[in-house]
Write a structure and sequence with these properties.
Largest sheet: 8 strands, mixed
Enzyme class: oxidoreductase
Number of strands: 15
Number of helices: 11
Number of domains: 2
Structural class: alpha/beta
CATH architecture of the largest domain: 3-Layer(aba) Sandwich
Function: Catalyzes the reversible reductive amination of pyruvate to L-alanine.
Radius of gyration: 21 Å
Distance between the termini: 22 Å
Family: Belongs to the AlaDH/PNT family.
Shape: globular
CATH class of the largest domain: Alpha Beta
Strand order of the largest sheet: 3-2-1-4-5-6-14-15
Pfam families: AlaDh_PNT_C (PF01262), AlaDh_PNT_N (PF05222)
Bound molecules: nicotinamide-adenine-dinucleotide
Catalytic activity: L-alanine + NAD(+) + H2O = pyruvate + NH4(+) + NADH + H(+)
Helix content: 25-40%
Length: about 350
Amino acid sequence: MSETRTIGVPSETKDRERRVSLTPSAVASVVDRGHRVLVQAGAGTGAGFDDDAYTDAGAELVADAGEVWAAEVVVKVKEPQPDEFAFFRDDLTLFTYLHLAAEPELTRALVESGIHAYAYETLTDRTGLPLLAPMSEIAGRAAAIVGAEKLSAAQGGSGTLMGGAAGVPPAKAVVIGLGVAGTMAARGLRGLDAHVTGVDVDLQRLYEHHLDGTVDATQISEPAAVAAHVREADLVVGAALVPGARAPVVVDEQMVASMRPGSVVVDLAIDQGGCIATARPTSLSEPTYVEHGVVHYCVTNVPGQFPRTASAALSAAVTPRLLQLVTDPDDASLSGALNVADGALVHPVVAETFPDLPRA
Ligand SMILES: NC(=O)c1ccc[n+]([C@@H]2O[C@H](COP(=O)([O-])OP(=O)(O)OC[C@H]3O[C@@H](n4cnc5c(N)ncnc54)[C@H](O)[C@@H]3O)[C@@H](O)[C@H]2O)c1
C-alpha cells in the first residue's frame, strides 16, 4: 500500500440517518498524517458539521456519492444500502458497521465483489468491542427514553408511568443482556425509578451488577425464569449479543403474548436479527408496530436520532483504527474486524451463519 491514501466519507443513505463517520476534527488529524479525505457535500450537515468546517479541516468536498466511493478506503456509519452495492469493487477497503448476520443480501454482494470489508462491531480488544460500545452506550440510554415514552397512552402504551406514584408501585422493566447497551438502558430506567431486572448468561457480569446496584434484581438467562419476568413486565429491552452471530432468541413468542396489552418491547439487538422472537426491523420513520397487543420498537439505527453526540463518539473511536487500517491492515489492533476479503467470508462466526458462501 502507498503511504498517502485517499479516504472517502459518504453521506449516509439509510432512512433518517444523520450521523457522519468522521467529524471535521477527525478529518484534520487524518489529513495531518498525510492522507487525502474526500467528503461528500452535506455529509455532516445533519450532525451539525457544515461543509465549510470540513474544507477548513483539509477535506476535499465532492458532489456525488460515486466520487467518494472511488476512494481507496471508504469509512461509513451504517451498513451499505442496496443502492450502494454498485460501488463495491475488488480494490476497495470498506470500514463501517456491517451486522452481516442480519444482512444476507449485503453479505452476498460483498463476497461477490471481492472487496475488503472491515466491520466495526466485530473488532475486539482487551476492553471488549470498542467500536460497537459507543453506539451501544447511546442506544441503551435512548432505549430507556423511548420505552418510557411508548408506555404513555398517547403513544399506544398501557398508560403506565415508569416511577409509579405514592401508593402505586413503579413500572417493571426487564433488560435482556447486561452488556454496554443493556447497562445503559438499566441505568436510564433506574433513573426514572422503574423496577429493573437484568438478565444475562454471564454469571460474573450479573454478580458485578448485583454488587454495584445497576439493577434491582439479576436473573440468569433460563427460559422459564425469563418467561416469568416477561409476563409481569411493562417494558422489555432486548440487548443480548453473541459477537458476529445472529442474536440469540431469549424471549419467545408465547412470552410476548403473555404480556399485558399496551406493554412495550424495545429490541436493540434487532441489528443482529433480534433477541425477541416477534421483533422485526423498523425504521426511524415508522418505528413501531403492535403484535399480541404489545408495542414493538425495533429500530436498527437508534443512535441516528442523536447524530451530534453519536457522530462525535463514533468518530473518536474509529479514527485511530482508521489510521492503523491505512498504515497496516494486518495490525493486531484491527483484530476480528475483517469480515469479507477476496471473495470469501473471513470472520469465523459470520462464515458459520452463511455456510453456502465461500469462506477463507
Ligand atoms: N438498534 C440499534 O440502533 C443498536 C445500536 C447499538 C447497538 N445495538 C445492538 O445492541 C446489542 C447489544 O450490544 P452491546 O454492545 O451491549 O453488546 P455486549 O457484548 O456489550 O453485551 C451483550 C450481552 O448479552 C449477553 N448475552 C449473550 N447471550 C445471552 C442470552 N442468551 N441471554 C441473555 N444475555 C445474553 C452477553 O453475556 C453480554 O453481557 C447488539 O446487537 C448491538 O449491535 C443496536
